[in-house]
Amino acid sequence: MKGLPPVLNSMTGYASAQGAAHEFGWSWELRSVNGKGLDLRLRVPDWVEGLETGLRGQLGKALARGNVSVSLKLQSDDQASGLVLNQTQLAHVLTAMSEVEQQAMDAGVTLAPANAADVLALRGVMDQAVSTPDTAALCQALTADFAPVLQSFLEMRAHEGAALADVLSGQLDQIAALTTQAAEIAKSRAPEVEAHLRSTLAKVMDNAGGADETRVAQELALLAVKADVTEEIDRLGAHVTAARELIAAGSPIGRKLDFLAQEFNREANTLCSKAQNTGLTTVGIELKAVIDQMREQVQNVE
């Protein structure tokens, strides 16, 4: 993985494969969905010593987030699971048959002759062949075979991540355009806001009845600051730049993007609450809609 350009990875992925070695055949299935952290769930034979540890090591180095499940189905080849003759049991059976035949002859009873198939059908004469596999060699083969499965899985996550990056970049373009529109509306309404404050100040002073002019001016200045959306617009622009830099840096950035999306939403909410202008409110609502869409997509980013 080293030396590759930064990529944005999705937490959703899938890969499967089949293999065979050491008189065994197997099938892999690797899948993942969104998760706050890295949760690995492995279903592999516990009698293959060291396998789970090796697989967890590979996954831990390659992944940062996601609920990941690995399933391995392992079966013996037909040649390794045939039938063998139990010589000890066969000797016991033949001895018993001889004694039965002798006693039957002594009693004058004629028995039907037994053939080989009858003898082999008796319980215990034929046993299932049991081979003791070389678990060390099998573990090595399985671990090596898992590497390309994991690579295919990572490629799928990267492919989906590239599509996700395009979607997020488009949404950031929309946020940037709406932020610019909000700045233009805020600038155009400045004379209106100033005139409104001057009119308010004149009315207050006409009816103040000896009120402290300095204190009244301070209160009106505070109202002006509360109506100013310059800081919100500046922070939205800074967040857009930061988000683009994160996407360019590549995964793992999901948690950082999620935090940044929350900050986007905070600034849009404040912009709407301070708007006092129909056009600015409309832009603020459109911003919130795009930001909500972006937050949903961010949940898929590793």
Order of helices and strands: EEEHEEHHEHHHHHH
Measured as a percent range, the helix fraction is 55-70%
Strand order of the largest sheet: 1-2-4-3
**In terms of per-residue confidence, which ranges show pLDDT below 50 for 5 or more consecutive residues?**
none
What Rg, in angstroms, do the CA atoms define? 38 Å
CATH fold category name of one domain: Butyryl-CoA Dehydrogenase, subunit A, domain 3
Q: What coarse outline follows from CA principal-axis ratios?
A: rod-shaped
CATH architecture of one domain, by name, is Up-down Bundle
Number of contiguous helices: 9
**How many DSSP E strands?**
6
Our measurement of the CA-to-CA distance between the termini, rounded to an integer number of angstroms, reads 16 Å
Fraction in beta strands:
5-15%
Mean pLDDT comes to 84
Please give the largest β-sheet: 4 strands, mixed
What features would you describe in this structure?
The chain has helices at residues 51-62, 87-106, 116-121, 135-188, 190-206, 213-227, 230-249, 254-274, 278-298; strands at 13-21, 24-33, 38-43, 66-76, 83-85, 126-128. The chain is of the alpha+beta class. The strands form two sheets. It has a four-stranded mixed beta sheet, with helices on one face. Strand 3 (38-43), helix 1 (51-62) and strand 4 form a beta-alpha-beta unit. The protein is rod-shaped, with a radius of gyration of 38 Å.
